[in-house]
Write a structure and sequence with these properties.
The chain is α+β, with helices and mostly antiparallel strands. It is built from 6 helices and 4 strands; from the N terminus they run H-H-H-H-H-E-E-E-E-H.
Length: 182
């Protein structure tokens, strides 16, 4: 298993090469330029998931103490979260690039699993968080389907509303995989 510094260095080089070879459209925003580049944001977002931190704040505390030398312009947590949302398309595009690079979908078999992602207590009154996107099934939130290759790499994922049945989500997932749009 890689240590954190090695992972960040290797992943940053890959992400930076990808971002320079695949121009990702950026949403324009008012104000000064961002403190981090697209490559830096995607690298940190990937590290935050890879490191299995117990919370977003735990990851950010680690980044402030251990990764400051690699990312000297690391902004505060709220700006970093805005940057992650701004570069969400680049993060998804890089994930798809890794799947193609590792040929994760070309293996003989994959494991599928689904899980509920609750966003709030369904018994509470009001519209709630992500109103119009999340809905109520057994819980209020989303239904996630993940496909994992035999080497452990995520080779695909899809999500729907909480009321979406597994079979319907799987049919949509397999249809999208058979006819990719990228």
């Amino acid at each position: 298993m890689l240590d954190g510094d090695t992972f960040v260095t290797i992943r940053y080089v890959m992400v930076d090469d990808f971002c320079h070879s695949q121009p990702i459209g950026e949403a324009s925003h008012p104000g000064p330029a961002a403190a981090l580049s697209c490559s830096e944001v995607v690298t940190l977002a990937l590290f935050g998931q890879w490191g299995q931190f117990p919370s977003e704040r735990a990851f950010y505390r680690y980044a402030q103490h251990h990764l400051r030398a690699a990312f000297p312009t690391l902004p505060d947590l709220s700006q970093f979260n805005r940057l992650q949302r701004q570069y969400a398309a680049a993060l998804v595009a890089f994930g798809l690039y890794l799947v193609r690079l590792q040929q994760a979908q070309a293996c003989l078999y994959e494991c599928l699993d689904s899980s509920g992602i609750p966003t709030r207590d369904a018994k509470r009154r009001g519209t709630g968080w992500l109103a119009g996107q999340a809905d109520i099934g057994w819980y209020e939130g989303f239904h996630l389907l993940v496909s994992i290759a035999k080497d452990g790499m995520i080779s695909g994922f899809g999500f729907g509303s909480a009321s979406t049945h597994d079979q319907r989500l799987l049919e949509t997932f397999l249809a999208a995989r058979a006819q990719p749009t990228d």
